[in-house]
Amino acid sequence: MFCHGANWNLYPLRVDELTMGDILRPLGMRVALVGKTHMMPDLAGLERLGVDPNSAKGTNVMECGFEAFEHDDGLHPDPFVPKDLNYNAYLSRHGFDSQNPWNEVANAAAGKDGEILSGWQMRNAGQPARVPDEHSETAYMTDRAMNFMDEASDDPWCLHLSYIKPHWPYIVSEPYHKKYGPADFLPPQRTEEERRDPHPVHEAFMKTNYSRNFARDEVRATVLPAYMGLISQIDDHLGRLFAHMEEIGRMEDTMIVFTSDHGDYLGDHWLGEKDMHHDPSIRIPLIIYDPSPEADKTRGTEDSRFIETIDLLPTFYEVAGGLKPPFHLEGRSLMPLIQDENIADWREEAFCEIDYSLREEAREILGQTPERCRGFIIVNENWKYVIYEEHDSLLYNLADDPMETVDLAQDPQYEAVRRELHEKIFTWLRRRRTRITVSDEEIIGKLRNSERDAGLLIGNW
Questions:
Q1: Is 0.90 topped by the overall pTM?
Q2: What CATH code is carried by the domain that includes residue 367?
Q3: At 1, is the pLDDT very low, low, confident or very high (cuts 50, 70, 90)?
Q4: pLDDT by residue (tens digit) across 137-173?
Q5: Structural domains in the chain (count)
Q6: Quick one: which of 47, 110, 365, 375 is 20 to 30 A from 235 by CA?
Q7: Are 225 and 169 in contact (CB under 8 A)?
Q8: Is 388 inside a domain boundary?
């Protein structure tokens, strides 16, 4: 975020920012999207450059570098109903007659008298969605992914299959709605001390509507079974996808990466939604399947080394045959880890950024202006340190307090740890690759003596 500026949903991605599609497409790959993305195009940039959004170049920017095989953000409540939503048209073709079947069928339940119970009301999460599983958003996106693979045939491709669920509205089709109950999930990770003496930003988020609701046991007991059911639904449809890939011979030559963009508090730390620094929000799954023989040494193993999401694109670049990723990419290819190469200098910590400027409720409680709604996180094997603009920092000893409930930042005993981690964040910020138009090699090479070669003898005697 620090480099590209698209810090949140609805923040446009600069027209000059190279995307995954822009980087992989020159290697001969077809880069497509099926499902959800909240990346927004830079319309002002297109207008400034005189680029028609409907032209070939404009279309690429409008979809932020992806070929939109099936673009559906999965957020279509009334009255904002896109007229060209393919999923709504699909539901209509299958007999679900409604002006907006996404809202009234796929994300709603039926009451005792046939009335529509909105999935936006979490009290209805325990009811089955009106849409049967085979026509759910998850099933539909799986079908579209298989359609893409069949069409792509043997051409090299990279597909971003971005499932809409699990996500609010928290509602799931039968039989997944009753697959789990309160006995199946862990108690919330939270303590009374967190509520008695919270950090100001934590306190502001605890006061938001969604957090106040998720602090209630009744809400968790209703929503979590649906959330877990949505995860099982994903599992089953991924199984269907993998079976199709086996059938068409693509499991033998396709790397599969399963991950997420964030977690969901669901009541942990007295919070709902995402946005903050605790592990339920920022620690996400990452499962990689590499069919190549070179990965046999690590097959079926776990790796506890620190990975950042920015490592995925350099990994894909290497898999696609690229020799050296573009110089402005900041991540590192994961292929040496996947292939069990001896790496002495792998990172010892990971970093995260927070921008909660669009969280109006919390922002106004804090009296913050949008540019001050920032946070930075560093985590290593033993510690997590968090900076929030204009507020005290936080420090957690992960070895003794893995649930992150005891803030040690103001304890003089840990001042040296706090200072060390603070300096590491400062160093990390200073080293962001904000010089993105010229590489180090060009500076050392052709640009080094360019002034002298041009006859500009500056400072000679």
A1: yes
A2: 3.30.1120.10
A3: low
A4: 999 999 999 999 999 978 899 999 999 999 999 999 9
A5: 1
A6: 110
A7: no
A8: yes
